[in-house]
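Continued from yesterday's entry.
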Amino acid sequence: MSRLTERWSSWTPYVLSILRIIAGFLFLQYGTTKLFAFPGAVMPGGGTAPLASLAGFAGAMEFVGGTLLLVGLFTRPVAFLVSGEMAVAYFMGHAGQGFWPVLNGGAPAVFYCFLWLYISAAGPGPWSLDALLRRKPGTASAT
């Protein structure tokens, strides 16, 4: 392995943390649009989704799950749950509109489904509350 490849590979856990943070931030915005119409309304007719509706439940999962994933708290189980939510979202909301996700509007759901499935297996990375809580007292860093 070349020195450059070796050096770049040493960044893998940190890049995993960056991926989780950015994806969590983007994902929670799907929830804020459904629950708070922020940064804009996406519901038909504008406004917010009723919390007791399927869209409201999905928005709550996306907002809470996205927030927890952003900070890296309970990362593995939360990522697994929202991965399943995205699979359900794809099959209930998009798959019936044709095979190709890019044409049926389901590409983000497919992408997030597999991204969160990967994060549930890979873990949060070192820059997370999970890693901070796992650290033993007197330990300088967690990798």
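--- second protein ---
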Amino acid sequence: MSVHVEALRLELGERCLLAIPHLHIAPGERVALVGPNGAGKSTLLRLLGGQAPAPWQGRLQVLGQTVTSGAALPRDLRQRVAMVHQGLHLVDRLSARDNLLIGALSRCQGWAGWRAGLAGHYPAAIAAQADAWLQRLGLSALAQHRVDRLSGGERQRVAVGRAALQRPELLLADEATAQLDPQASAQACQWLDQAVARGSLISVVHQLDLLPRLASRVIGLRAGRVVLDRAVDDSPSLQQALRELYASEPDVHPFDGAGAQEGAHAWVRA
């Protein structure tokens, strides 16, 4: 299993952020986490990445390794799990190319290789992969630009490329299309799929029109609990289930941008 959860409960103060009796995600699955604001989507993603906001109870295995509450992921597991954070977490003073190459640090052999990577001296094969991803992401002309001088959408593409250079077995993407226009968002779904190759992809999705492109399985959360878990298809029953998932907050539109919101509602209505 890529992810195995049993009797999970995570509380922060008096608030229960997650309460999941069981959840299993198989190797190679493409899973979308959906739900209203505050449902626990990003919290679950952070938990799987070893960044839970508070101690938790229960059993959690990621890529076959047991994860302990209050502890970071073991180093060897961190090398196999990549995350595209909602806040991106790029190094602003570095170029787009150097930010991509940071993703490959864990692939540098030994202490000497890691130090060489930190100094910007990467093996030729890794450097070539970074250049190939810059081209794929439409960033070749911006390769040497500092990322703090790039647009939000360009920075988001850099974050996807950095994750790809890590060659993860599990990729966690928290609203990885949020700052992209509709055309780039659709393209980003392919980039994320390619970035994790044969591994598993778990994405927090607010643009529901992207579901068929990003995932074969959708998990809906409300108040930290799984209330929807089924295959992604174009059936009326799924569209009705998604409407009901968001019905408790009718005035909240969890879609980014007018175009994305329109497209999402159109897909759910279809």
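The chain has two domains: 1-80+168-254, 94-167. The chain has ten helices and ten strands. Will compare against the first tomorrow.
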